[in-house]
Target: NADP-dependent 3-hydroxy acid dehydrogenase YdfG
Amino acid sequence: MVGTQAGITAEYEGKSEIRLGNTITSKRAVVTGASSGIGRATVLQLASAGWKVVALARRRDKLVELSDQLGDACEYVVCDLTDEASTQEAVNRILRGGPVKALVNCAGGAIGQDPIEECNIDDWRNMYEVNVLGTLRITKKLLPALKQAPGGGTVVVVSSVAGIEPYEGGAGYCAAKSAERVLAQVLRFEQVGQPLRVIDVSPGMVRTEEFSLNRFHGDRAKADAVYEGVPDPLTGDDIAECIEWALDLPDSVDVDSLVVRPRAQASAHRVYREG
Model:
């Protein structure tokens, strides 16, 4: 079966599949978008910190690599979060594997950087499906299990500073990430008093292997130009460390919103470049 997410097409067998390790722990996290970038880095970081991680993505080969690398610390589920049946089947399999303490929503992406007058409506629709509805779909389905976790559960939404500071050519992505941040904020309002933390992590300029390349439809020159001259942009590992720090705080401590930028970035419009 073929699914498309944020401009990436991948083949996978069936709607979802899972490989379970041999250990069940109450410190068990589900990470979406686990095949690359911040999601993959988060899987590795949490596993190194003693978490049992369930890695979700559409690309089976990438998930198998992670699972083989981490052994019993990592389970995987092949799942398309833009598909209702695939997501429900994945959730059913996850819950059969044990309790869920945390959900880290990393799946997402940007497509294009055209001004509104010239934008592609399908690109906007795809960004909304992945960044907003994909996050909503998996979060809604796992909420009951998260609230039943020992000590309570945590939802992490990895949005973006683009959801706070809109910029020219980024209206579609900025709108999607703004909606994702609002989803986290309202969920926090609605669940106050419940055994649930909701954490929004808004990264600034993060250099990963695929984000900008996907945004510019595989144009390597345009993708590289995004980071040209910027000393030490953030990496996926940087954001993963922040996520693990927030998750491993006491259950009573909720980091509502965490904005993380490289030192060279003051805002979406203000970036220092050498040369």
Q: What stands out?
A: The radius of gyration is 18 Å. The chain is about 40% helix and 20% strand.
